[in-house]
Amino acid sequence: MTGSLDPSILMAQSAESRQGGPASSHRKLRVLFVTEDDPIYVIRFFDSFLVEYPREQFDLVGMTIVAPFRESLAATARRMLSFYGVVGSARLAARFAAAKLRRRSIATLAKRDGVPLVSTSSVNDPGYVARIRELYPDVIVSVAAPEIFRDEVLSAPRLACINLHSGRLPKFRGMMPTFWQMLGGERQATVTVHEMAPEVDAGRILGTVECAIHERDSVDRLMTEAKVAGAGLMIHVLGEIASGTVVPRPLDMSEASYYSFPARQDARNLLRRGHRLL
Description:
The protein has a single domain (7-272), classed as Formyl transferase, N-terminal domain (Rossmann fold, 3-Layer(aba) Sandwich). 41% of the residues lie in helices and 17% in strands. The protein contains nine helices and eight strands. The strands form two sheets. The chain has a six-stranded mixed beta sheet with strand order 2-1-3-4-6-7. It has a two-stranded parallel sheet with strand order 5-8. Helix 2 (42-52) links the parallel strand 1 (29-36) and strand 2 (58-66).
């Protein structure tokens, strides 16, 4: 059964916990992260979050790190080559290799912080769902998780699954929202934390923060800033969930759009606007 982020229920549970009721075994908010293995951009979220989050409020009970895109390395290489071109792809590959040589990874950060790693090949695997239920998470947090969560995962935490999305919802649903906001002529990128629902990027909004898009900007810079800003936003939202003060806002799906991974022509159109990829 899915939990609830309705404020009246959360506040009652919070009071019950303080008074030693059934929720008293969860004085800290129990959080499980699901993310992808990205040592360039997504890692910047965890660089900030794992330093700044209030340990007296949150208990990180686990972290699951899966491969990005859920495709072969060859397919990912072709995707990057098509989007970034030869030079851009080489620059990104060099950054990726440098991170690997320095053993810089999200897994390393988690181990340093004492966060248990919960491995799986798919978050929807029944065995994995059974394992995370045993961790009794209050909230599952998705940060660039490359799979759509099925109902079994969405119902696993006590309260909710929530997601960090680097775009304004519901207009910029889907992949690479920072890119599409820049291409769309937006003056700022909206980083959103929202509840996860069976439909992608369609759950209620829990919080937002804005990142300015400069006149001549780069997708690289904006993606990095969005991840760092998202870490602060996620700490804020989780704090509101823990205190029972979060106020979810429903989306008006009549304004919804959905974007896939941009093609090479989309990248060329962005360059014509005076922006850069890297």
